[in-house]
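Data deposition worksheet. Section B asks for the primary sequence of the deposited chain exactly as it was used as input, without tags or linkers unless they were present during the calculation. Section C holds the resulting structure in token form. Section D is free text for depositor observations; keep each observation to a single sentence. Incomplete worksheets are returned to the depositor.
Section A, Depositor: J.P.
Section B:
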Amino acid sequence: MSTYFTEGKIFYPGFQFPIYHTSANCFSDGANKRDHYKLILVISGTGILTLNNRKQIIVAPSALCLNETDTFSLESEVSLQCAAIFFHPQIINQHFDFPVLKASNHQLSINEIQDLYWLNPFLRKSNEFTGLLHLGPSNAHRIHNIIENIENALEIQLDND
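Section C:
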């Protein structure tokens, strides 16, 4: 299991849910191979990021979609504020793991193909698209609200079904 998970407290004590939120050190694990995907929302500030040996200028508001093999290093920053969600792709679909997502010949069901669509920014990297999304203010605000809701749900853990 990943080092980044949320552990059940009340209703499922000890259960490790493969999703985690942080607002601190969003760019700290870039040199390590990971067992999770990472979405970083840059809320304010600017920075220079080396992403897979390519320099990128990040300017808020933007989002960075990183897969398990991406390497990155924050070279410099000015007033950079961020929020990050770490997650295993099984959070999207229970059948998703890294070999399945990388295999081109794997037979996927219709539901898996539809679920896979939501992971495209993490998987479909090219010279033209590195995973960095420049956002408008309204989209950034909406994504920030969703991340805050995820953070609250992970912290409060209301589900008692």
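Section D:
The CA atoms of residues 41 and 63 lie 4 Å apart.
The first helix runs from residue 98 to 102.
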